[in-house]
């Protein structure tokens, strides 16, 4: 596997993003590790395997012949691990979201990238693909049959807290009821993110600014802005950016991002609670004519670039990595398309993949 060039202020994430970095970790600085880049139902899509179409789905059927660690089209629930190396050389590990596939991600990528623990957890929202792995946090905590260990800090909104208290009452219960047996469960220190979202939080020494976004018009989800030397925004579930949030992460607002990690559910069309490729391309674009050329060149629907025109000259990061994809996306083929688009637009955009490690100067 190829090495990944570190992402420093002004440097581009280059073609090596198509490979999983496999360098010796000793002495390395900070890095972003993509534990999952797929949608809630993950990829492969189970229906493509148990009721295959004719011809069968190429992306999903790869899972039957290529091991997941060598298959960029094998995608678990979206989750990002931040390996933060502070100025004293100490590494802290912050994970954003702990979804349905968390245990699989630990077995595959914690072992591959030599991640020894989790120091802090941040939740974007309380949907199943972001929280249903919380029970398995105990598997990466020190073993104690009496739960006598330091709890892991977990940051979330009050709305998410209330929902999780219903889903996992035993994880938030402070005292045993009379007659209740003690059982080993994950030990978590619940820390509420204030609803105003204007105050940053510090998880394991790294500053995060909450970014409220619409995940459907009836639901607010959080993204997060972090990094002092390289500015990174992680936004996994979004259908629309409120103006205040867009200003904070826009080139024409508070300043250009070095890296935008962004939701991208479908290749074609639109969705009511997620961004899809047509909207994503318009979100990161600063040049309409080149994308129109590409759409025609690829014989896509004219409707596609009309959606693009509606959202031109917006966020415009230096580079973007897309996550949350369904089985519509073929990693290699669609990254070739995005590479051509990137060259014309001057903004490097690629699909991320599970296991991708991006060294970065935070």
Automatic annotation (TrEMBL):
<dbReference type="Pfam" id="PF12706">
    <property type="entry name" value="Lactamase_B_2"/>
</dbReference>
<keyword id="KW-0378">Hydrolase</keyword>
<dbReference type="InterPro" id="IPR001279">
    <property type="entry name" value="Metallo-B-lactamas"/>
</dbReference>
<dbReference type="GO" id="GO:0016787">
    <property type="term" value="F:hydrolase activity"/>
</dbReference>
<dbReference type="InterPro" id="IPR036866">
    <property type="entry name" value="RibonucZ/Hydroxyglut_hydro"/>
</dbReference>
<protein>
    <submittedName>
        <fullName>Hydrolase C777.06c isoform X1</fullName>
    </submittedName>
</protein>
<feature type="domain" description="Metallo-beta-lactamase">
    <location>
        <begin position="93"/>
        <end position="281"/>
    </location>
</feature>
């Amino acid at each position: 596997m190829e090495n990944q060039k570190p992402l420093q202020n002004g440097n581009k994430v280059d073609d090596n993003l198509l490979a999983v970095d496999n360098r010796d970790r000793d002495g390395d600085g900070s890095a972003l590790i993509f534990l999952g880049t797929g949608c809630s139902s993950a990829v492969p899509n189970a229906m493509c395997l148990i009721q295959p179409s004719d011809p069968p789905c190429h992306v999903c059927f790869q899972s039957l012949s290529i091991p997941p660690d060598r298959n960029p089209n094998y995608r678990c629930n979206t989750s990002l691990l931040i390996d933060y190396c502070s100025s004293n050389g100490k590494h802290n590990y912050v994970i954003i979201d702990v979804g349905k596939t968390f245990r699989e991600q630990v077995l595959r990528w914690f072992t591959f990238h030599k991640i020894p623990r989790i120091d802090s957890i941040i939740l974007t929202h309380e949907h199943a693909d972001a929280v249903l792995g919380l029970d398995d946090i105990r598997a990466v905590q020190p073993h104690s049959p009496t739960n006598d260990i330091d709890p892991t800090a977990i940051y979330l909104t009050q709305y998410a807290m209330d929902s999780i208290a219903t889903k996992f009452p035993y994880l938030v219960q402070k005292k045993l009821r009379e007659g209740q047996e003690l059982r080993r469960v994950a030990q978590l220190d619940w820390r509420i993110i204030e609803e105003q979202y204007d105050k940053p939080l510090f998880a394991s020494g790294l500053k995060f600014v909450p970014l409220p976004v619409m995940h459907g018009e009836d639901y607010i989800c959080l993204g997060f802005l972090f990094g002092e030397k390289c500015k990174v925004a992680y936004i996994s579930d979004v259908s629309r950016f409120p103006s205040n949030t867009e200003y904070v992460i826009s080139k024409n607002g508070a300043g250009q991002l070095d890296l935008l990690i962004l939701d991208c559910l479908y290749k074609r069309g639109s969705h009511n609670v997620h961004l899809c490729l047509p909207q994503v391309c318009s979100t990161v674009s600063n040049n309409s004519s080149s994308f129109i050329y590409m759409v025609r060149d690829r014989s896509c629907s004219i409707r596609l670039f009309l959606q693009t025109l509606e959202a031109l000259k917006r966020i415009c990061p230096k580079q973007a990595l897309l996550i949350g994809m369904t089985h519509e996306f073929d990693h290699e083929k669609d990254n070739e398309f995005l590479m051509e688009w990137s060259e014309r637009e001057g903004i490097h955009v690629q699909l991320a993949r599970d296991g991708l490690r991006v060294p970065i100067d935070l």
